[in-house]
Amino acid sequence: MTGHHRDDSITRRRALAVTGGTVAAGGLAAAGYQAAFADSATTAAEGTATASASASESSGCMTLMSSVTEGPYYLDGALVRKDITEGKSGVPLTLRLTVVDATDGCTPVKGAAVEIWHCDAWGYYSGYTTANPGGSAPAESEDGSTADDDTYLRGYQIANANGVVKFETIFPGWYTPRTCHIHLKVHTGGQKADGTYEGGKVNHTGQLFFDDAIAEEIFTLEPYARHSGSYTTLDDDMVYDGGGAHSGLLTLEAVHKKDPSKGYKGFLTVAVDPDAENTGAGSGGGGGTPPGDAPSDAASGTPSASASS
């Protein structure tokens, strides 16, 4: 089953401009962006979503999260930071991930480094901005942002005493032949150095996934709607195995139920074995090799010549 997007009724717009850390234009109100990225104490809605997510996952808490391939777009040297958007336009997404030790009663893994990376609203990854996302999309350079083409939508956060990390980002777009997703790795034993995270080992390599109905609604909005074509649903994805939260399916809470452009909050408990080491080879499908006309270096996981390590 695939979803189909038509761009014949879409008004051509330039992507969102970012000034002073807030988003303007492109159909996303600054107030919505700020609400989704609020740094204040946990709201009642967030508390409810967190409780719901915890309750749904508690029965499988002692089960390790499914490990899958890191895919073709990984880069070393991501920055330690909470906000990874760099001005990339899209529907705001706040991620709250809780890392627990599945071998020790699901105790929090304090100090775990959680690394995430994902594509922009049109399906492009930093470091691989010429790789064709499939379908019909504007060139990545047309988004009008000031994002660094080697670093946008990538970053680390260090887990607090409760094992919690938070990221401020945007809802990912899609690229052929994958469903909407976010990549992640959990590292332990290393340390922050020169703005990034070095040393230690990778305990888990996985991916985060989104409910199809929510993704379909998001993709009708600007700037996502300018990427037309067919995208892959969860049931047909080569990586997602249908295991729900255990396989990386996020619990999502809308910032404003009647206006998806205001953003979402995503929650998940990531159960790992802090003593294990994961190579990133994974076991879930091909991991999302880009379309056949994408540069061969992208398919092999080698960054473009301009990408920094």
> Quick one: how many beta strands?
13
Q: Stretches where pLDDT falls below 50 for ≥5 residues? A: 1-59, 289-309
Q: What is the string of SSEs from the N terminus onward?
A: EEEHHEEEEEEEHEEEH
Mean of pLDDT: 79
Q: What is the overall silhouette?
A: globular
What is the first-to-last residue Cα distance? 38 Å
Main structural class: alpha+beta
Radius of gyration: 18 Å
Sheet of most strands: 5 strands, mixed
Number of helices: 4
Helix content: 10-25%
Write a concise synopsis of the structure shown.
With 309 residues, the protein is α+β, with helices and mostly antiparallel strands. It has helices spanning 30-36, 44-58, 212-218, 296-300; strands at residues 2-5, 17-19, 22-24, 92-101, 107-108, 113-117, 154-158, 164-170, 181-193, 196-209, 229-232, 251-254, 264-272.
Describe it for me?
The chain has helices at 30-36, 44-58, 212-218, 296-300; strands at 2-5, 17-19, 22-24, 92-101, 107-108, 113-117, 154-158, 164-170, 181-193, 196-209, 229-232, 251-254, 264-272. With 309 residues, the chain is α+β, with helices and mostly antiparallel strands. Strands 4, 5, 8, 12 and 13 form a five-stranded mixed beta sheet that branches. A four-stranded antiparallel beta sheet has the order 7-6-9-10, with no helix packed on it. Strand 4 (92-101) and strand 5 (107-108) form a beta hairpin. The longest helix is centred in the first third of the chain and has 15 residues, at 44-58. The relative contact order is 0.25.
